[in-house]
């Protein structure tokens, strides 16, 4: 059986909190990995990510999937949700914004491996997808497809 | 033709039984592998797994898929079903709970290879998936995708 | 052939504009109906509507479909998009918010008939849908289903 | 614009609570209808309802959809979720359980109209669905299909 | 709350039984309707019904959906499953077989309303579906589509 | 139980036969209706109907669905399949060909009600569908949708 | 084996005609109805209709479905395809353009009944659908859904 | 062009035959491979395989897909169908039954490569899949996925 | 408005050619590859291929996908379509017929690489698929799946 | 955090522009890569690409997906959209047109890797797909499938 998780350091859990004003407000937190010797994958899906276009101020939307293999830490899920919500009124290009999230989570966890897929909603009829991983995954780990269908227009 | 399975040791089969109180009550049983020399995969799907959140006591739900290549033993299917049902009133984190199941089945069967995929239902709009395998599968075995689509939000 | 649309009165078209601060800033505009004697239906779909929860300040998301049969006016589509975007930082209950949109568009257009379907994303695993129409549609008009599948959980 | 909702009477909101022991523990609460003069439909979906079989003690699962047209009251959504969770360790037949929920919500709200669809997961390969409504819906209201596909076996 | 179901008369429940030799062996049983005053629909789905062709002796397969509105009785689900299994080695034409089931269940329950849809698997590339109901359903009852897609060939 | 079908008059059954040269070769046959007093629907699906274009000689393809409510006769299914195959080298317009089939079957059976849906494959990117029924169906009969999705181009 | 094709001679291939310059060039033609006494529906689908926005000159795309019940005439399908292609470089609002097509075909055929559904691709994330019919369809005719799913954004 | 197949030895073809009593009755036959030098794959799909549970006598159902690369022989398709039908009244465990089929076909054909996927319908809500292949497929051969989706419960 | 089309003159429309009598009539043609130095894949899909069974004379149907990487030549698409149509009244086994097409196209083009997938419609409920390629594809080329789902029976 | 993008050189952004007359009018522009040291993939989808057939002048349609790994530059998305629109009145073969786009974008960006998939709509019932990439992708990069289903005809 796994060791009970130490939750004494968590500050976001157990009370309602508003949205952070922007992505530079520190909210990301971590908990110890309960099975540190096993190469398993944790997947988070944020289907309604939203930020602003830096040129026009119009809202942008994306479906984001984050996969990682933990080393010593797991990301605490409510703090990750708050961090993603902090982009709501922040302007950033699609390509820049996607990689910023990956770098921030990577710096917190120093995981064995990490990747991000960002599936942006179309503006002007032509969407952009962005895909990045920290390198080839470790031998013997199992990493399923993210399974998000590409955009098909109206058809 | 295969050898008839020896079922004299089975204690769960043939009478109705209630749910075990928790995952530490031993219910898992095994039967001899009828084709011990062939590297074939057995897949179980438990589409309505349920446990409790260790922090809030709220129910959690997952769709769980277990794949393994047997060595000398098969897991008896009704006892596996009972074992999974024993998590119904047990509190455990998603990551810990998933790997506990894999370790318990692995200890019973010492299979050639085993993997688990746990697809947890969203809490707060952002689900968690957990993927683990015991290592790279043996050469020449055929292991299809688990085929569970990632969460897509409402869309 | 239809009469050319008179676009002299439109103020949103042709220059980039930021988001209105809230739904009370007037942005909705209308253009003359090019086929005033025909009972046809116009459908708008806003798949990424977002507002704030009035109790917790957390973001809410909805997929909204608006159908109407015009009398003398059409709603100008860019102004409708801006109006819906004005809910981005506005707190309102699901039921109230949905009917507010219907009433605002109805007051602008006094259409022959109007309905709204709001398909809210789940919070806590249980979504809310809201459906309203101004009354039975006129005889002989053709009104297809909105075709949005109800929430299915993870399965 | 709608009147602000009076939330002073709500007792479940704002603090974490465990599961009620059974469906007789009163948790259902109501809030005033913000648009009392309009015949609109509110839909709740509980995709992971679970209770126990009264004969064998085995867990049962259902996907439940509840539609209603409010008169003076809305059901408060968190209390409805708690009420449904209270069936977790309660034994009841499919047909009885489904109608009990409908009657309980109906007694609280005295709505203009109400229906329930319960889509039970198969036991022994043959599922049961239960459908009930309080009568024909009022003229001119719009009531979309619940859109839950019948069971198809493995195919 | 509903009255507890009287299960003393049930003979199939609680012990394993083999398949009845043919549909004339009486196995269908009934239990009292727990909500006799409400016009609700109960749906059974038998996705793997099988019988034999009366001319060639080859196996036939069908997906069968049975809907009814109970009067005083519910059909006991395990006995219905056994009754349907009794066609396994019985020869009968598609049209005759489908209506025989409807008539047998109707004679047992004298329900308010009953219908059957039988979706036969193709022989020679061209399937047969059979649809029957006992008459128009009662006013105000809710009767969803059976939702079985017609055969599409290979495409 | 239904009366055994009298199959003595059937000439197509029980031996392999080639394709009829054209639709004027008489092959359609009928068998007595085993449940003559019940208004049930029989559906045939011919997913790979093929004929020739009368102008260019190129092959045309259609997916055809035939629904009817029998009076005294059922159409014998193998003879219907042969009749449909007889169009393989026959030239006919889409609209004419579809209604010819309906009229031929109608003349053989004089059914209570009959309809045909013909879903022709696209030529030049724009398909033609043809829909006809003999009149409004009888009160109280149950007639499901044919459920063939309209053409969507490549999308 | 054949020799390589010399494509120099192919520019006259089939004496194909170019696109009409605009919708006012008369190309629509009609042929006699082969079954004038029967109320059947003919459906055309044009999945890649394209025109220009009258304000910005940008291309617009739509999926268009046209249904009608012929009186004395059928529309000749190649001429209808050419007519729809003539909108390629023509500027027109969505609502106006859709009804213009319906009126032009209606004037040519004076059909018993006609409807048009136009499903426009999104500009700025929010599509427009337009639905019109000439009135309630005649009693007893069969008119299936057009079956085009509403826009769902990226999800 | 390929050599005409020698069909003189086939005994099942051309006359109607009943079902073999059990899998030990020899019915499997083979025909010469018309393209013996090419590594191509032949796939058979038996979507309605049925056998009996060796413990309870209840019917089991599976969807079975068989892929092989022929060496000198093809399996004759009608005889394979009869062989699979012979399990109809035969009791066998899922794992044993699946591998028995693979071994029987392999012994008849001594193919270059062979695999079997058996997708068993759920009993007690938790299905079993079995996957086996004779080894890694030969270099340069093309072997598509079997494409059968795993079980998802009701959802 | 245009005058009704006189269809007497249409029999010469476009100098369309009839179908070749059988696959030995040479119709396949080729055009020069416009990008001879680039390893790209060209895919043709023939969704309605039809031939005759060599034993019974009944029609067979297949969905065929042909992929190749050109060297010096492309196949001319209209001639390929005519070649495939020439099998309409030709008898051939599934396995033989599929490989004949691949060999004929390969002889004309001597392509860098070629593969064929033939997805035959079921006869007697059990379909056959045939897959072949000329060898492993060249390094660095991109070859997507053919994406044709295997047969699923009725389910 | 990423460096702000320098947008001073962009000429297409911020004012409405008409369509370029043909693909030789230079409109493609580029912006600096904000994360130049990371091997990530950018995907554009153009679901409604249209050009003209060089032989007949008829319109052709394609769904185009472009994937690349940037080196020093990103393509500016509005200029790419304009470039693709410039093919609207330009005649080109499918194979030639697809590769022209790939070469033009490649020359502007000199990316680490690039591929294009063009899924052309059927003419005469048989579509063409074209697939090309600049070579094998770099080790450790993550490149999801383009996920566009092949053509299936009407089925
Ligand atoms: Ca389309
Ligand atoms: Ca795979
Ligand atoms: Ca959406
Ligand atoms: Ca599920
Ligand atoms: Ca509906
Ligand atoms: Ca099936
Ligand atoms: Ca097809
Ligand atoms: Ca319906
Ligand atoms: Ca499209
Ligand atoms: Ca309908
Ligand atoms: Ca979404
Ligand atoms: Ca694959
Ligand atoms: Ca579910
Ligand atoms: Ca099925
Ligand atoms: Ca993949
Ligand atoms: Ca088809």
Shape of chain A: globular
User: Describe the biggest sheet of chain A?
Assistant: 4 strands, antiparallel
CATH domain class name of one domain in chain A:
Alpha Beta
Mean pLDDT level of chain A: 83
What structural class do the secondary elements of chain A suggest? alpha+beta
Oligomer, anyone?
A: homodecamer
Overall number of strands of chain A: 6
CATH architecture of one domain in chain A: 2-Layer Sandwich
Bound molecule kinds, no repeats: calcium ion
Give the SSE map.
Ten copies of one chain form a homodecamer.
Chain A: E1 30-32, E2 41-52, E3 59-69, E4 73-75, H1 77-85, H2 94-109, E5 113-120, E6 128-133
Antiparallel strand pairs in A: 1-4, 2-3, 3-5, 5-6
The structure holds calcium ion (16 copies).
One calcium ion binds next to loops of chain G.
Q: Could you provide a short overview of the structure?
A:
The first copy, chain A, has about 160 residues and is of the alpha+beta class. The first copy, chain A, has two helices and six strands; from the N terminus they run E-E-E-E-H-H-E-E.
Structure description:
Chains A, B, C, D, E, F, G, H, I, J: Substrate binds at residues 75-77, 94-95. Ten copies of one chain form a homodecamer. By secondary structure, chain A is α+β, with helices and mostly antiparallel strands. Chain A has a domain at 34-133: GTP cyclohydrolase I, C-terminal domain/NADPH-dependent 7-cyano-7-deazaguanine reductase, N-terminal domain (GTP Cyclohydrolase I, domain 2), CATH 3.30.1130.10. The first copy, chain A, has helices at 77-85, 94-109, and strands at residues 30-32, 41-52, 59-69, 73-75, 113-120, 128-133. In chain A, strands 2-3-5-6 form a four-stranded antiparallel β-sheet, with helices on one face. In chain A, strands 1-4 form a two-stranded antiparallel sheet. In chain A, β2 (41-52) and β3 (59-69) form a beta hairpin. The radius of gyration of chain A is 17 Å and the shape is globular. Chains A and F meet through loops of A and loops of F. β2 (41-52) of chain A pairs antiparallel with β6 (128-133) of chain B, so a sheet runs across the interface. Bound molecules: calcium ion (16 copies).
């Amino acid at each position: 059986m796994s060791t009970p998780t130490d939750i004494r350091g968590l500050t976001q859990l157990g009370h309602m909190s508003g949205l952070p004003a922007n992505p530079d407000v520190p909210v990301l937190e971590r908990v110890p990995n309960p099975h540190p010797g096993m190469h398993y994958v944790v997947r988070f899906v944020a289907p309604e990510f939203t930020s602003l276009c830096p040129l026009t101020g119009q809202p942008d939307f994306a479906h984001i999937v984050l996969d990682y293999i933990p080393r010593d830490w797991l990301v605490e899920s409510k703090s990750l949700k708050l961090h993603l919500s902090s982009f709501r009124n922040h302007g950033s290009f699609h390509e820049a914004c996607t990689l910023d999230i990956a770098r921030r989570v990577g710096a917190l966890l120093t995981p064995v491996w990490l990747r991000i897929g960002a599936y942006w909603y179309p503006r002007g009829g032509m969407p952009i997808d962005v895909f990045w991983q920290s390198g080839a995954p470790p031998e013997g780990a199992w990493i399923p497809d993210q399974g998000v269908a590409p955009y098909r227009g109206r058809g």
